[in-house]
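Example record

Each entry pairs one chain with its bound ligand, protoporphyrin IX containing FE.
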Amino acid sequence: MDALLEWLSQTALARWMQNAIWAFPIAEIVHIFGISVLVGAAALFDLRLLGVGRRAMSVTFAVRFLLRTARVGFVIAVSSGALLFLSNAADFVANRAFQVKMLLLAAALANVLIFHLGIYRSVARWDLNVPTPLAARLAALFSLAIWLAIIAAGRLIAYV
Ligand code: HEM
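Structure tokens for the complex follow.
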């Protein structure tokens, strides 16, 4: 692991992130933009699963519109996050808040997979103007809680 981290820190991109004075702040600004698009769209989708707007917006439309937007935010957050990570990989790997954040990120992605491979397959029965099944509402509550926890862990990286 140490050899990999040492190798990462010697790459041209890592050196650029370490030496270019604006690289880290710009990557962090882009990171926060990606997070706001991802978590904003995901939270709106979770609210729809909890029944908000169920007479006006079908769940399948919300998946097409909001989850596609969240995916774009996710790609921006992960790619800018990887740049931030490269700037000081060894320290971030040892950082407790960063470790917790990566575990929470894995749990958030597992929740998305379980939802899409599970309850979402029966969406035709609860697509519009009917209450969503308990499993979908639990997935939404878990998602809201876990993205909040990821943001908290991300913010705490600089403090631990
Ligand atoms: C995709 C979901 C993600 C979310 C919601 C998220 C959230 C956050 C938040 C809220 C911060 C604090 C920003 C600040 O206040 O300045 C942060 C910082 C950070 N994130 Fe992420 N992040 C995500 C993914 C990633 C990934 C995949 C990586 C690395 C591979 C990463 C690496 C970092 C690093 C290194 C920092 C610390 C920057 C510093 O020292 O201030 N993030 N993240």
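DSSP finds seven helices and no strands in the chain.
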